[in-house]
């Protein structure tokens, strides 16, 4: 099977690896937990986009993020690439730098949500033990828990 269809910037990591024909993922079958991970990447994109627009204004953002702006480099690096390899590399960096994402966000409830969502993604994609797949229940619990702080 060739690569799956979808918006690469929001694909689950295992699906990106399959598209890259990386060793060990030849037998990856597109499953529900991959779609749930994609929802997390869409949510992260939306939350970070909101923070950038809140801080800079929509007009400033539409002109593009300043390449020298360290505060939002992770956003730009995570969601501006178009090749599977660059996106996969950005995902791994994003997973190891999730504390940088949290600091970018002002609202404590959203900070908690992003932190929890990134933990779910890390557990699903860890390479040192059996993955813990994202479920409807774990995703809903993350949103419910974050909403308690509102």
From TrEMBL:
Leader sequence segment: 1-22
Keyword Signal: yes
Keywords in alphabetical order: Signal
Name of this protein: Uncharacterized protein
């Amino acid at each position: 099977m060739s690569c799956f269809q979808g918006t690469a910037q929001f694909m689950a990591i295992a699906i990106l690896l399959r598209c890259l024909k990386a060793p060990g993922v030849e037998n990856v079958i597109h499953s529900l937990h991959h779609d749930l991970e994609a929802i997390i990447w869409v949510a992260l994109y939306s939350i970070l986009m909101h923070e950038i627009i809140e801080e800079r204004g929509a007009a400033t953002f539409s002109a593009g993020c300043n390449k020298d702006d360290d505060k939002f480099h992770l956003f730009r690096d995570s969601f501006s690439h178009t090749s599977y390899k660059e996106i996969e590399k950005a995902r791994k960096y994003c997973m190891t730098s999730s504390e940088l994402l949290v600091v970018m966000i002002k609202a404590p409830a959203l900070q908690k949500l992003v932190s929890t969502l990134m933990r779910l993604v890390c557990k699903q994609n860890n390479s040192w033990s059996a993955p813990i797949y994202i479920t409807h229940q774990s995703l809903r619990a993350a949103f419910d828990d974050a909403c308690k702080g509102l």
